[in-house]
Amino acid sequence: MKPAVLEVMRMNRVCRMVLVTSVGSFILVIFYFQSMLHPVMRRNPFGMDICCRKGSRSPLQELYNPTQLSNTAILHQIRRDQVTDTCRANSVSSRKRRVLTPSDLKHLVVDEDHEMIYCYVPKVACTNWKRVMMVLTGRGKYSDPMEIPANEAHVSSNLKTLNQYSIPEINHRLKNYMKFLFVREPFERLVSAYRNKFTQKYNTSFHKRYGTKIVRRQRKNATQEALRKGDDVKFEEFVAYLIDPHTQREEPFNEHWQTVYSLCHPCHIHYDLIGKYETLEEDSNYILQLAGVGNYLKFPTYAKSTRTTDEMTTEFFQNISSEHQTQLYEVYKLDFLMFNYSVPSYLKLE
């Protein structure tokens, strides 16, 4: 291994955040990499205190000062570097907003007991990760993530997010807690969102809010029933809606198809770990190991038979024109670059 890699892996680096006040509202400005080392109070996932015994280490210390350097640690350093390099190379587009406000932090779930922050991205195993976070923060209320109903995992009051803290508390947590997120091939995630929200009859709220709007704008000679129900949106219409400049001016994308860099702000917040859907189990259990709960808790391993695959995604894009494919790629380009996903072979970019 190269000495430079070793040196980077041994660094203790976390975010440093500086605050500015503007017109009565706080504005957060994120800076990178400040050293940290201090004793912490730890808890196990069943709520029993583990005192600050000699040798106890925080997840950040385990990550950046590993007792034994591993290929996994090196892999995650490479992923961090990829994000940093992409942000630097695309500074104009990736940092259109130079500051963040607390409302930008509503996707960052906080685990006080294990000093971790998880930015959840819909359609990237976020239901199971929310279940795991409920076990970690439940102080004995839960022990098995899969015993928690999926709808309960999405009840906002069951988990605390970073935007609920005061500005000094936000500062402290961004500086001292291990921050992680999970990503997925952008177009596979997009097709997964479409299939879940527009092809399932039970998702009437999405049909009413988004489906009717998409049909009205993108379908010529739409029937009155289609305009009223919005429950038969075609993928081609969904894509046309996403690339429509009017859509992007009107309001932010829904979280299920919003870009990861807009949900989690990786060019403003330094994430210590970037997990991938393609290596979900390994990456998730590595995080639980760093948190010191790997012996108690494993990430759920069951595979959904209905999950969206690369083959499915290829089929969905067959009827998308090369012009629309090119425009859609531009929308999600930073996610492709930042998380090292290659341009799909089925795309016909202009």
Automatic annotation (TrEMBL):
**Which PANTHER family does the UniProt record give?**
CARBOHYDRATE SULFOTRANSFERASE, CARBOHYDRATE SULFOTRANSFERASE 11
Tell me where in or outside the cell this protein is found: Golgi apparatus membrane
Q: Does the keyword Endoplasmic reticulum apply?
A: no
Q: How does it sit in the membrane?
A: Single-pass type II membrane protein
The answer to whether the entry has keyword Glycoprotein is: yes
Spell out the InterPro entries in the cross-references: Carb_sulfotrans_8-10 (IPR018011), Sulfotransferase (IPR005331)
Q: What class of enzyme is it?
A: transferase
One Pfam family matching this protein: Sulfotransfer_2
Name-wise, this protein is Carbohydrate sulfotransferase
Recite the lineage of the species: Eukaryota, Metazoa, Chordata, Craniata, Vertebrata
Organism name: Apteryx mantelli
Similarity remark = Belongs to the sulfotransferase 2 family.
Q: So what EC number does this one have?
A: 2.8.2.-
Superkingdom of this protein's organism: Eukaryota
> Transmembrane residues, as ranges?
14-33
Q: Which UniProt keywords apply?
A: Carbohydrate metabolism, Glycoprotein, Golgi apparatus, Membrane, Signal-anchor, Transferase, Transmembrane, Transmembrane helix
- Say where the protein is mainly found: Golgi
